[in-house]
């Protein structure tokens, strides 16, 4: 960004239609007063006067709820940025400080009672500060720990956008009582039609995984719907550690990283839910980084039930094929949020048919599951198994489900 504010910049800013309340820049000045002392305030006033807008701190303080030309708000931010050499981080900090002022809290306390009422109040909150620009909540989900704000019809200066990436999360964090991150994902100064801000909070690991899912649009897998329990990632890691050691696991992680995805197998929470697409990406990364064949992946699936806590918990149901058949749908649902599993037992005829519906991720995952199911069945009947995927949604006439046949 430019160092010195030029007359053209001032002219451009002051030509912008719309108004902003005095408070929008009063807090910036108070932030400077607080962090840099009385003298700094004099410097701001002098520079504003020099640029043709002799605004006095005492005046804004007296008329903080009055409306001023919106360009003044942007100009004041730029003046502060120029005088004190503020970088992006410091601008963000200034944005955050604004939401900490007692007056701000008092004025907007009515919106602060809950997450939902804050979300509803956002457009109005914006309008109380600015006569132009429309702030919308595109998505707000306390479960998913994210919110997306869209700011339309507002184009003053990029410095304001950075400022807002400090301001928005601070407001939200007052309500949530937890730290909130924010980044601008779309911006009119980058050629987009509006500004968009992504706010995230909660568990950092989960958040990064979720972001990996939404970020990389080139990887289809990253957009697969549904989630898998952390335990399935853990068991993958156990297998890789056993076969290829720590070095092998690190290779898999850096292979994923090179594709823009992030898994820290050690940080994953066993009972947490993670994007299902990431599961397949991790299997693919193992093929790539470790040279695993389909057989190896099947073997990995076969080893998994032995390490699974959930299978152990369900162990009491696993003493007969009939029991297993009735419990299998639940066992599946404990691991995955999508797909329905049904088991058709034919114990007398010595075979079991397993059908999986509503899950079309990747054929490699079928291979893994074939290994996984065969181990569970083998654990029950205690005899070697011949396994085969007899129908698959990826091959031969596009069946709408996968079917596995296990014989002994
Ligand atoms: Zn922007
Ligand atoms: Zn299949």
Please provide a written account of the structure.
The structure is a single chain. The protein is 53% helix and 17% strand. With 408 residues, the protein is α+β, with helices and mostly antiparallel strands. The chain has three domains: 7-202, H-NOX domain (Alpha-Beta Complex); 203-292, no CATH class; 302-408, Alpha-Beta Plaits (2-Layer Sandwich). Strands 3-4-6-5 form a four-stranded antiparallel sheet. The longest helix is centred in the middle third of the chain and has 29 residues, at 230-258. It is elongated, with a radius of gyration of 29 Å. Residues 213-218 have low confidence and may be disordered. One zinc ion binds next to helix 16. One zinc ion binds at residues 363, 366, 389, 392-394, 402.
Brief digest:
With 408 residues, the chain is an alpha+beta fold. 53% of the residues lie in helices and 17% in strands.
SSE order, one letter for each helix or strand:
HEHHHEHHHHEEHEEHEHEHHHHEEHEE
Main-sheet strand order equals 3-4-6-5
Q: What would you call the structural class?
A: alpha+beta
**First-last Cα distance:** 71 Å
What small-molecule ligands were found? zinc ion
Measured as a percent range, the helix fraction is: 40-55%
Keywords:
408 residues; 4-stranded antiparallel beta sheet; 17% strand; Alpha-Beta Plaits; alpha+beta; H-NOX domain; binds zinc ion; 53% helix
């Amino acid at each position: 960004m430019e160092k010195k504010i030029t007359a053209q910049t001032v002219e451009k800013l002051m030509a912008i239609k719309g108004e902003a309340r005095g408070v929008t820049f009063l807090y910036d000045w108070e932030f400077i007063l607080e962090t840099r002392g009385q003298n700094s305030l004099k410097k701001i006033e002098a520079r504003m006067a020099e640029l043709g807008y002799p605004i006095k701190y005492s005046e804004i303080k007296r008329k903080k709820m009055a409306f001023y030309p919106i360009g003044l708000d942007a100009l004041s931010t730029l003046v502060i940025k120029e005088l004190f050499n503020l970088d992006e981080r410091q601008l963000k900090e200034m944005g955050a400080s604004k939401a900490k002022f007692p007056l701000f809290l008092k004025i907007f306390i009515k919106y602060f009672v809950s997450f939902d009422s804050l979300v509803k109040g956002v457009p109005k909150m914006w309008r109380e500060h600015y006569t132009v620009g429309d702030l919308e909540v595109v998505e707000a989900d306390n479960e998913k720990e994210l919110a997306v704000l869209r700011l339309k019809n507002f184009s003053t200066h990029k410095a304001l956008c950075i400022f807002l990436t400090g301001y928005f999360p601070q407001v939200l964090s007052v309500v949530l009582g937890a730290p909130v991150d924010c980044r601008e994902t779309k911006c009119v100064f980058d050629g987009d039609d509006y500004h968009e801000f992504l706010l995230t909070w909660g568990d950092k690991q989960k958040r990064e995984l979720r972001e990996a899912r939404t970020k990389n649009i080139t990887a289809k897998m990253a957009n697969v719907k549904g989630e898998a329990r952390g335990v399935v990632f853990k068991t993958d890691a156990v297998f890789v550690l056993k076969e290829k050691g720590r070095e092998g696991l690190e290779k898999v992680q850096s292979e994923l990283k090179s594709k823009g995805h992030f898994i820290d197998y050690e940080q994953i929470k066993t009972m947490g839910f993670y994007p299902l697409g990431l599961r397949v990406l991790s299997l693919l990364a193992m093929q790539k980084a470790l040279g695993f064949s389909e057989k190896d992946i099947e073997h990995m699936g076969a080893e998994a039930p032995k390490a699974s806590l959930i299978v152990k918990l369900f162990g009491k149901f696993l003493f007969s094929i009939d029991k297993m058949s009735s419990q299998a749908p639940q066992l599946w649902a404990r691991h995955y949020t999508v797909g329905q599993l049904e088991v058709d037992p034919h114990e007398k005829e010595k075979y079991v048919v397993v059908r999986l519906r509503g899950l079309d991720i990747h054929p490699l995952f079928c291979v893994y599951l074939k290994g996984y199911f065969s181990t569970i069945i083998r654990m029950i009947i205690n005899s070697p198994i011949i396994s085969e995927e007899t129908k698959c949604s990826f091959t031969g006439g596009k069946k709408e489900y996968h079917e596995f046949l296990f014989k002994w």
